[in-house]
Amino acid sequence: MQLRDQLQKEWSRNLEIVGRIYICEQGINAQLSIPVENTHKLRAWLEAHPVFCGQIPRFNWAIEHRKAFKALHVRMRPLVATGADLSLDELSHEPEYLSPEQWESELRTDSESGQPLLIDMRNSYEFRIGKFDGAVCPDVDTFREEMAVVRDLCKDKKEPIYMYCTGGIRCSVAGAILKSEGYENVKTLQGGVIAYGNHIREHPDRQTTSLFKGKNFTFDKRLGEEVTAEVLSRCDQCGGPCDTFTNCANRSCNLLFIQCPSCAEKHEHTCGTDFCKDRAQMSHEELIKNRIPSIWNYHLRVRPEKIFGPDGVAQVPPSIASSDELEPQPLEEKA
Ligand SMILES: [Zn+2]
Ligand SMILES: [Zn+2]
User: Fold this and answer.
1) How far does residue 267's CA lie from ligand 1's centre (Å)?
2) Cα separation, 163 vs 6, whole angstroms
3) How far is it, in rounded angstroms, from Cα 17 to Cα 33?
4) How far is the CA of 71 from the centre of ligand 2 (A)?
5) Domain residues of the chain, as ranges?
6) Could you say which of 154, 165, 171, 248 is catalytic?
């Protein structure tokens, strides 16, 4: 709690950091934007701090000229919502961490004798717009279901398992669980697709040989970052090739879906219902006066394939008439 208050105060005020930080007993997960000129101050701050000194974390840097976040939010939350309490003992069984270069070369070598078991540990909406060639992408909604699929896929505990996720955190937890269950050969991509994307972008000639194709979904307002130019997905409204995620402009809908520029214009940046178009036009004051509950629950909000009719317009559910007062939930990594 003390640490949370300290980070909230000192980082946002003195270091102009914005982003999202989760703190729990096992560690800290942070996605931050910081002005370049303050990075050395951040390092000095970490080196001087009793909690961090002697164990400065590895950073996953990305260079962007616009900020991905508006403010700094620090919250107490488990590292990965596993649905069960993990002991520090279980977490001490670390998987093998491969750098993007090692990941590439080991996958290539293993692929010579057939497709190795390569598992995408992210959400279904994430792998729609980008994934590693040959990856198995379990279409599940929770970490617990994901682990069940992994165990199912990997009968031989000696067989290599390659796992990746957005930033590497989910895989370090999943890898520790598998190792503690006796899986011997668990390899994870260190720093996740974020690190791999940086590796590709640093050397544009790697674009053509990248094992990852398409965009990496990001949990900020950009909703994605290009790794290679291939477009893997289609517009949820017209079916044309497109990999730009958006949220319906009506905040109480907030549906997450893929929308091409011409559909964005046609449907006024909404999911296409008259209801959402009307609300998207309302002023902040009018919206406050006419508060309504969130239209979709988390699971539906990220499953546009269940929402859109053949005309490319969302089907508004009866829950609009329900009386629960709910704020739209921010999008987060899979719980
Ligand atoms: Zn379209
Ligand atoms: Zn909508």
Assistant:
1) 10
2) 35
3) 6
4) 25
5) 2-76, 88-209, 233-321
6) 165
